[in-house]
Amino acid sequence: MTPHPALGVFFHWLGGLASGSFYVPYRGVKGWAWETYWLAGGFFSWIIAPWTLGFLMTNDLLPVLREASSTDLSWCYLFGVLWGLGGLTFGLTMRYLGMSLGMAVALGYCAAFGTLMPPIFRGEFAGQVLGTASGRVILAGIAVCLLGIAVAGLAGMSKERELSAEQKQAVVKEFNLKKGLLVATFSGVMSACFSYGLAAGDPIKLIALRHGTATLWQGLPVLVVLLLGGFTTNFLWCVALHIRNQTGPQYLRSAAGVPRLANYLFCALAGTTWYLQFFFYTMGETQMGAYKFSSWTLHMASIIIFSTLWGIGLHEWKGAGRRTLRLLAIGLILLVGSTVIVGYGNYLGSSAR
Q1: What is the mean pLDDT of each run of 10 residues along the chain (353 residues)?
Q2: Are the CB atoms for 327 and 158 separated by under 8 Å?
Q3: Domain ranges of the chain
Q4: Residue 316, Cα to own-chain centre: how many angstroms?
Q5: How far apart are alpha carbons 127 and 305 in whole angstroms?
Q6: Measured in Å, how far apart are the chain's first and last C-alpha atoms?
Q7: N or C: which end of the chain has fewer CB atoms below 10 A?
């Protein structure tokens, strides 16, 4: 199938929209601890949605997984477990550095490592990336993306400085730059393992194609294995929290003022929306041609764009000063521009071929 980079960028934007939006339904959950609604939604994110869409959109899902080598399956699962550790420590990053600086540092690491390590590991970086005009354009787009993340972080830091004295005291009490940078580094690098897991699943994608699965859906069997690893990490952590906080009965126990059915529906919506980010990601990756490694940059940029827009829509930036809003606008422009540059680099590559 001939790659269509513009279509690939569009799919990545849809994935970013899903990722930037998935947490909104959780706001409707009442009376449940974090570990309860996180795991309830996680069953849809990591188990129900991947298997359901895998069976519906691919041919011979179970035979494809049986035909895959144990080595390929193991690497996909292991990278999923490691990615789960990155997601869990992301919350600690927010605690020690604050939302703005924490997100900028963690996602900066995640974007850089998740984008550049796969072609370096395959030995393609020097020849295919540095050695071609299209590859250098894509690298420029990655640099613009990282700059946009940094500027968005500066906007958040500027907003934090504009908080009231009481709010500042609450933030400073948790702030620990040294510890926060260490945790953010760990979180960003581990979160990039999702990109490694998708790359490790390339042989599984080829098997899916041989079984007659359409090119667009070839990545869905890989997601089944990769997300099983992520489920393992999150399940163990949530169970530990249930034991410590004695919150396990919340799944079944009715309590006054707790709309249990509505909670499950909100969790199902949130979890399914979360999965759709990688559903569209795998579709976009098929359209990026030889430079599909750039998909991770497009994904990170799109997440920040849409999560920031949600923040504006939910009035999280209400009362911010003119300087802060200027930085926010510049950051968004840079991030949008990075997706255009990366898409153009892929277009150059596909045209040359």
Answers
A1: 78 86 86 91 95 96 96 95 87 64 71 75 69 80 82 76 56 60 84 88 95 94 96 94 93 81 94 93 82 74 76 70 84 81 72 56
A2: yes
A3: 5-352
A4: 21
A5: 32
A6: 13
A7: N
DSSP string across 163-184: S-HHHHHHHHHH--HHHHHHHH
**Residue 53 structure tokens:** 């869409």
* Block residue for tokens 């003022």: 257
Measured between alpha carbons, how far is 241 from 75 in angstroms, rounded to an integer?
Answer: 28
Place of tokens 């907003």: 159
Coil/strand/helix, residue 1: coil
For residue 314, CA distances in Å to 27, 55, 308 come to 11, 37, 10
CA distance 92 to 103: 11
Beta-carbon contacts of residue 24 (< 8 Å; ≥ 6 apart): 270, 310
Using alpha carbons, select from 93, 253, 114 the residue that is nearest to residue 174. 93
Q: What is the distance between the alpha carbons of residues 151 and 100, in angstroms, rounded to a whole number?
A: 10
CA torsion, ordered 48, 49, 51, 56, to nearest 10 deg: 130
Burial of 149 (0-12, 13-18, 19+ CB in 10 A): buried
Distance of CA 199 to the CA centre of its chain: 15
Collapse the DSSP code of 220 into the 3-class scheme (helix H, G, I; strand E, B; otherwise coil) and give the result: helix
Tens of pLDDT along 197-255?
A: 988 999 999 999 999 999 999 999 999 999 999 999 999 999 999 999 999 999 987 77
Please, is 232 exposed, middle or buried when counting C-beta atoms within 10 Å of its C-beta (0-12, 13-18, 19+)? middle
Tokens describing residue 248? 């396990």
Structure confidence by residue, pLDDT tens digits, 157-171: 777 677 665 554 454
Sign of CA dihedral 195, 100, 21, 167: positive
Task: Please give the structure tokens belonging to residue 155.
Answer: 């906007």
